[in-house]
Automatic annotation (TrEMBL):
GO terms for biological process: isopentenyl diphosphate biosynthetic process, methylerythritol 4-phosphate pathway; terpenoid biosynthetic process. Its EC number is 4.6.1.12. This is 2-C-methyl-D-erythritol 2,4-cyclodiphosphate synthase. SUPFAM superfamilies: IpsF-like (SSF69765). Binds 1 divalent metal cation per subunit.
């Protein structure tokens, strides 16, 4: 058996009136991530971690934001396609771990739902998918507090 580790990072501005979709779950919050797709920075970072570990092109190359096909795209569908491609390359996810840094929505009340949704999309047990929220300590990083940054790490095996 061989294993590979992958890392992914994503950053989106939070904009008033956009649905706040993170980790495949809609959070009750007055602003949400801007983007060509639904802006789900969590699923984007996870997808890039998987693609990176499998030695495949990154998310922006596979689903370019210049392509009208992906306007408003549901990132859950993008991640499902990424899992399919990673599988076709012979790799299977073992676990995923995510840090969400934001002063926007509170993450803790939605951790369980995000873990369950991502576990379903990745074909993993819930305990193999973790999510941690991190405040930015009021330091004004990330567009004066109106941004979300996500770091993801994954392990693959074949
Ligand atoms: Zn993104």
């Amino acid at each position: 058996m061989s294993t590979r580790v992958g890392t992914g990072f994503d950053l989106h501005r939070l904009v008033e009136g956009r649905p706040c979709i993170l980790g495949g779950v809609e959070l009750p919050h007055p602003s949400g991530p801007a983007g060509h797709s639904d802006g789900d920075a969590v699923l984007h970072a996870v997808a890039d971690a998987l693609l990176g570990a499998a030695g495949l092109d990154d998310l922006g190359t596979l689903f370019p934001d210049t392509d009208e096909r992906w306007r408003g795209a549901d990132s859950r569908a993008l991640l499902t396609e990424v899992v399919r491609r990673v599988g076709a390359a012979g790799w299977r996810p073992i676990n995923v771990d995510v840090v969400i840094a934001t002063e926007g929505p509170r993450i803790a009340p939605h951790r369980a739902a995000m873990r369950a949704k991502m576990a379903e999309l990745l074909g993993l047990a819930v305990d193999a998918v973790n999510v941690k929220g991190k405040s930015l300590e009021g330091l004004g990083a990330l567009a004066g507090g109106s941004g979300v940054a996500v770091q993801a790490v994954c392990l693959l095996e074949r």
